[in-house]
Amino acid sequence: MKKDEKKAAVNLTDPEQRMALIKDKLSTLTRDFGDVYGQRLTEELIKRLEFTINTFHEDILKALDQLQDVGKTQRNLEEQVRQGTPLHDLLPEELKKPGKVLHQPVSDLFKLKIK
Description:
With 115 residues, the chain is mainly alpha-helical. The protein contains six helices and no strands. The chain has helices at 15-29, 33-37, 39-82, 87-90, 93-96, 106-109.
């Protein structure tokens, strides 16, 4: 490819385009592996790399979804606090049961504890 030619942009959110890009890159990287390891081992390496990349992609998408959910929950709680909802009312029911939450005066949190 010449310097002035541009590669077509790849849409990484499209699984087919993403796999085509991965296979192209892997084939470039593993071109010489066949001479050293043989074709069957090279194919197995490519399969395992593709599996690892797909698993990583799925894990990242799940993590991003969880972060988005946590952000929405946090914004919702902040809005309720701004509107004057008592913090106790925002606690999940299981934390409202006696003995589940230790209440400590804020002033005690700042006292120096010297033994």
